[in-house]
Amino acid sequence: MVLSKSSHYALRAALYIARHPESGYVSIKEITRELDLSFHFTTKLLQRLTQARLLLSCQGPKGGVRLARPPKNINLRQIVEAIEGPELFTGCLLGLNQCSDDHPCPVHRSWTGVRQRVTNLFEKTTLAQLVEPSHKNKLRLTNLE
Amino acid sequence: MVLSKSSHYALRAALYIARHPESGYVSIKEITRELDLSFHFTTKLLQRLTQARLLLSCQGPKGGVRLARPPKNINLRQIVEAIEGPELFTGCLLGLNQCSDDHPCPVHRSWTGVRQRVTNLFEKTTLAQLVEPSHKNKLRLTNLE
DNA sequence: TATATTTAAGACAAAGATGTCTTAATTAAC
DNA sequence: GTTAATTAAGACATCTTTGTCTTAAATATA
């Protein structure tokens, strides 16, 4: 798996929040009901996004979470990195420590090239792009059946 | 992490086996001693590679494992898929089931493109390429320190 | 054949990821 | 202020991955 389940859930929740037209808070209850996720588990994932300053949260009635800034200023790498750290974007394909141009593993050079393309995708893809109306037919955020 | 620790270990072990000049069996004791891996855990990983017909094994004195065919005919995808399944090469970035051109998630199109580049790298990279002499300076298979 | 060596296989332990539940803290609305 | 609603936080359970240990099976060699 490229991403952990936690990242899957966090990305889907972030997209749900981003596509909410009103700029108010969205309750986590609603998010998890609509996306069919565990409420408590997702709450903790969204707490991490809040701590990473990607979301704002508010307790009490009418509370919930919202994006901390315009969706065009939040990209997929920021979300993934807040949940599971930078390993995906920096790690050696063989899991070796200090793998670098100076001390490369056998796949270092070719992997670095492909990994950069992965990183580019995550960095240049923003929440805004993924929820814009022309993408309406691609807004599926839930499992089928 | 792109790959599991199990895949890391299996790839490193496979490269160690491939770079052995003699075509005889290499003992798993030697592999795990040289690569600083757990003997029993690695043994089971190599069993999976044997079951996937990537390796041959032999018990008893002078026994061990060897490549089941020339290293130019074993690529990285085969090894990874034998260890952790095809998810990396086929899965949805958001973890959704049945994500396809017909029922795409918001990142389906762009992820499919990048995922294909990852797949290409794993498929076109063979053990032979990674152990050929011109790569000698890139044969690091162990952690530093 | 007997022995030593090696992989095969399975039980089990430890660690980490995932998921559930309870209580505390905060806040809107009455 | 009281109440209800909501996130924050932590304890705990379950499942998966990773790692260890023991025993069985196979095989080369003497």
How does the SSE layout of this entry go?
The structure is a homodimer of 145-residue chains.
Chain A: H1 5-18, H2 28-35, H3 39-51, E1 55-58, E2 64-67, H4 76-84, H5 87-90, H6 108-124, H7 127-131
Antiparallel strand pairs in A: 1-2
The structure holds a DNA duplex (30 and 30 nucleotides).
Characterize the structure shown:
The structure is a homodimer of 145-residue chains. Chain A is mainly α and 145 residues long. The first copy, chain A, is 48% helix and 6% strand. Chain A has a single domain (5-136), classed as Winged helix-like DNA-binding domain superfamily/Winged helix DNA-binding domain (Arc Repressor Mutant, subunit A), CATH 1.10.10.10. Chain A has helices at 5-18, 28-35, 39-51, 76-84, 87-90, 108-124, 127-131, and strands at 55-58, 64-67. Chain A has a two-stranded antiparallel ribbon with strand order 1-2. In chain A, helix 1 (5-18) crosses helix 3. At the A-B interface, helix 1 and helix 6 of A face helix 1 and helix 6 of B.
Strand content of chain A: 5-15%
CATH class of chain A: Mainly Alpha
Oligomeric grouping of the chains: homodimer
Give the CATH architecture of chain A: Orthogonal Bundle
- Looking across the biggest beta sheet of chain A, what order are the strands in? 1-2
Number of helices of chain A: 7
- Measured between the Cα atoms of the first and last residue of chain A, the distance is 22 Å
Mean pLDDT of chain A: 94
Q: Main β-sheet of chain A: number of strands, strand sense, barrel status?
A: 2 strands, antiparallel
- What percent of residues of chain A adopt helix (DSSP H or I)? 40-55%
**Spans where pLDDT lies below 50 across 5 or more residues of chain A:** none
Shape of chain A: elongated
Structural class of chain A: mainly alpha
Query: How are helices and strands ordered from N to C of chain A?
Result: HHHEEHHHH
Largest interface: A-B, 47 and 47 residues
Number of domains of chain A: 1
CATH-level-4 superfamily name of chain A? Winged helix-like DNA-binding domain superfamily/Winged helix DNA-binding domain
Radius of gyration of chain A: 17 Å
Would you report the number of β strands of chain A? 2
